Amino acid sequence: MRLITLEGLRQEALKAKTDLWSAAQGLDRDVKLYLHWSAGHYGQFFDDYHINIDSDGSVYMSSGTLATVKAHTYKRNSGSVGISLACAYNATTSNLGSEPPTALQIEAMAQVIAVLCRALDLTIDLCRVMTHAEAANNLDGLNPGYADNGYPDGRYGPGYSCE
Question: Nearest 5 degrees, angle CA 133-CA 77-CA 14?
């Protein structure tokens, strides 16, 4: 895990851009960013995400390249970047736990999204930037009917629609 500046992150995105786009286009889609909270403690980082953001807003990168395939979002890891806030210990879908996201984390995540979208030529919309819960509910229609996840309609997240 290494501390990285927003400029450093921009440089890493530019270096990984060709590989990320190649992987995504092999799946007939654009590069995607998936947003998470780790359900861990502040300062506790996980290698499942490319980027971990601590309670003070500091940004950490977990691999040598953003093109590395990480295990952050079910059936959506190739050609994507996983970004997580290090927080939400003991969280549920209705309570963010004893270590909720801080204002500094939320601001840093917004900045990380902006930097990555600009460097990777992504529009900030539901087709390219989404939370894990939105992906779990397949709100972009990318994976209709995950037959092997045990849910007949293919959704596994909280709530079921954008309506």
Answer: 110
Structure tokens at 107: 């601001």
How far is the C-alpha of 142 from the C-alpha of 51, rounded, in Å?
23
Is 84 within 8 Å of 46 (Cβ atoms)? yes
For residue 40, give the amino acid letter.
Answer: G
pLDDT at 132 (0 to 100) = 86
Instruction: Check whether 27 has a pLDDT greater than 80.
Output: yes
What HEC string does the chain produce? CEEECHHHHHHHHHHHHHHHHHHHHHCCCCCEEEEEECCECCCCCCCCCCEEECCCCCEEECCCCCCCCCCCCCCCCCCEEEEEECCECCCCCCCCCCCCCCHHHHHHHHHHHHHHHHHHCCCCCCCCEEEHHHHHCCCCCCCCCCHHHCCCCCCCCCCCCCC
